[in-house]
């Protein structure tokens, strides 16, 4: 099939190559002329035969909304837009309505696979009417991993794909947090001599084996005690959206919520909340508190 691809960053560029490897014709557009096949969005649309299919891989929020709106002015009856970025699922309904008024179809698709997707394939979770999904199915088939799994038409309503991807990322937060806490505990004891080898041993025959575990082992092979990294973990938004959706639907999500808040803790050099807890523990039980050393003196381990 012929397909337009907007956004040729790390993911988009590799997706373009995997689609081409699968025998499809891709016209890619990016604001960076060094990676773009054409010099404008208009030129990309003009290069596609009708009915036209355009896949959008730009940052979530305003960049995606603006791109979808611009495509709505360039495309026509029977054409299709696929939003494959990390958009919030609530944006999809508005984008679908905007395009529908112009006779243009819309499919939302959560994409997972990162920089490894070119070789391994991408897990795809899409939402939209059957007829619209069918128009882009050849591209889905080329992008997905080999085998039966790796693709799902999650639902016919706009947003189903991105909602599924959001929950996927929430689970990812919790799994990473569990591995990280286990690593910290192993590092904290003098009983285990080889922490990287211990993690590596879990990669076969255990119930906690996973690709995330493989990636952590790779990181530990490069930096045994992770001394080259700072203890700061960002979040891309999906964790927050997952927890908010859990609140909206009254679904208890203790572990995923805790993993999200742990990332916020990582951004504090000296946690204000922990200061308050230390102060209260000292007040009610005389527990030790730790203070910065006075000029020319030693740090105090306790009061009084």
What are the key terms here?
12 helices; 304 residues; single chain; Rossmann fold; 6DGDH_YqeC; N-(1-d-carboxylethyl)-l-norvaline Dehydrogenase, domain 2; phosphogluconate dehydrogenase (decarboxylating) activity; 6-phosphogluconate dehydrogenase; alpha/beta
Q: Can you lay out the helices and strands and say which pair or pack?
A:
Layout lengths: L1 E5 L3 H12 L3 E5 L11 H7 L5 E4 L5 H13 L5 E4 L5 H12 L4 E8 L4 H4 L2 E5 L2 H14 L7 E5 L4 H29 L6 H7 L9 H12 L15 H11 L5 H12 L6 H14 L19
Parallel strand pairs: 1-2, 1-3, 3-4, 4-5, 6-7
Antiparallel strand pairs: 5-6
What's the short story on this structure?
By secondary structure, the chain is of the alpha/beta class. The protein is 48% helix and 12% strand. β6, α6 (130-143) and β7 form a beta-alpha-beta unit.
What does this structure look like?
The chain has a seven-stranded mixed β-sheet, sandwiched between helices. It has helices at 10-21, 41-47, 62-74, 89-100, 117-120, 130-143, 160-188, 195-201, 211-222, 238-248, 254-265, 272-285; strands spanning 2-6, 25-29, 53-56, 80-83, 105-112, 123-127, 151-155. It folds into three domains: 2-158, NAD(P)-binding Rossmann-like Domain (Rossmann fold), CATH 3.40.50; 166-265, N-(1-d-carboxylethyl)-l-norvaline Dehydrogenase, domain 2, CATH 1.10.1040.10; 271-304. Helix 3 packs parallel to helix 4 (89-100). With 304 residues, it is an alpha/beta fold. The longest helix has 29 residues, at 160-188. The protein is elongated, with a radius of gyration of 24 Å. Strand 3, helix 3 and strand 4 (80-83) form a beta-alpha-beta unit. GO terms for molecular function: NADP binding; phosphogluconate dehydrogenase (decarboxylating) activity. Keywords: Gluconate utilization, Oxidoreductase. InterPro entries: 6-PGluconate_DH-like_C_sf (IPR008927), 6DGDH_YqeC (IPR004849), 6PGD_dom2 (IPR013328), 6PGDH_C (IPR006114), 6PGDH_NADP-bd (IPR006115), NAD(P)-bd_dom_sf (IPR036291), Pgluconate_DH (IPR006183). This is 6-phosphogluconate dehydrogenase. It holds the Pfam family NAD_binding_2.
